[in-house]
Amino acid sequence: MSQLNTKHLLGIKNLQPNEIELIFETADNFKDVLNRPIKKVPSLRDITIANVFFENSTRTRLSFELAEKRLSADVINFSSSSSSVKKGETLLDTVNNILAMKVDMVVMRHSSPGAPHFLARHIDANIVNAGDGTHEHPTQALLDTYSIREKLGDVAGKKVVIVGDILHSRVALSNIFALQKLGAEVMVCGPPTLLPKHIKELGVKVELDIKKALEWCEVANILRIQLERQKMAYFPSLREYSQYYGVNKAMLDSLKNPITIMHPGPINRGVEITSDVADSDHAIILQQVENGVAIRMAVLYLLAGITS
Ligand code: CP
């Protein structure tokens, strides 16, 4: 396989396993480039990319921008907080105005699930979903599974638990799809109020006891509690959440086998994970961030070749 079957990357759900493998193999090449003294290639010269962020971001926005610059694309950045969206402009008008400036690709983050899918139906540019509300975050899942492949040699057959606020997490849904397509076994663990009612229909195991979940897995992906998306109290207090579901060093030391710790960021230290775990040799959190640039270079490079 030498190209993707899609012009947009809207989610993991509709990607085929061999498309994910193609993205990984392309990322391997770009990772080699990123480790050279000259980290730039001319692959996307004359391509213009708009990073359109309607929601806050540190890692994803910087990682996409760096990936685009390493590929020699021309880059423009849009942030809704300092834009005419504040004056009442619609999403479609905003993006059409950006496209009128001859933009080829749009990387978009939005708080509404389905916002990038809506854009893809109405405009010609390639769209990359950089996170749509509680729905999907495809490049995060790609960099997470790529990091597991790098650390453990393969994703197939591995046992991965996703811990925490599954209900509000786009990272969880995209990771479940990606891990299953690559042949991993997936468990989710968290308080019952933060687990979607029909989660078992996705073919995942459910465990409410964090110690049993960590004993079962080879990799634990710890998620942040997304207080900004919670419209009611799902647990009594952050202190209580941390007491029952926070991952700490004593817990890891008590396991029969060592496990790999992941976190998509941003971390709430002392809530879902303690600093001595986040900063330990078991954690690959910064390797995930490093791999994000190579994965996003691969996605942009592969999509840029598809115009219809
Ligand atoms: N992991 C992630 O999406 O982080 P940001 O919200 O900082 O982009």
Attribute tags:
single chain, 308 residues, alpha/beta, 5-stranded parallel sheet, 4-stranded parallel sheet, 11 helices, binds phosphoric acid mono(formamide)ester
Care to give the gist of this entry?
The protein has eleven helices and nine strands. With 308 residues, the protein is of the alpha/beta class.
Question: If you had to describe this structure to a student in words, what would you say it looks like?
Answer:
The chain is of the alpha/beta class. 38% of the residues lie in helices and 15% in strands. The protein is built from eleven helices and nine strands. The strands form two sheets. It has a five-stranded parallel beta sheet with strand order 7-6-5-8-9. Helix 2 (59-70) links the parallel strand 1 (48-53) and strand 2 (74-79). The chain starts with 16 loop residues before the first helix and ends with a helix. Phosphoric acid mono(formamide)ester binds at residues 57-60, 131, 137, 140, 264-266.
Topology:
Elements: H1 17-34, E1 48-53, H2 59-70, E2 74-79, H3 91-99, E3 105-110, H4 115-122, E4 126-132, H5 138-152, E5 159-163, H6 170-181, E6 185-189, E7 205-207, H7 210-216, E8 219-222, H8 238-245, H9 249-253, E9 260-262, H10 275-278, H11 285-304
Parallel strand pairs: 1-2, 1-3, 3-4, 5-6, 5-8, 6-7, 8-9
Helix pairs in contact: 1-11, 2-11, 5-6, 5-11
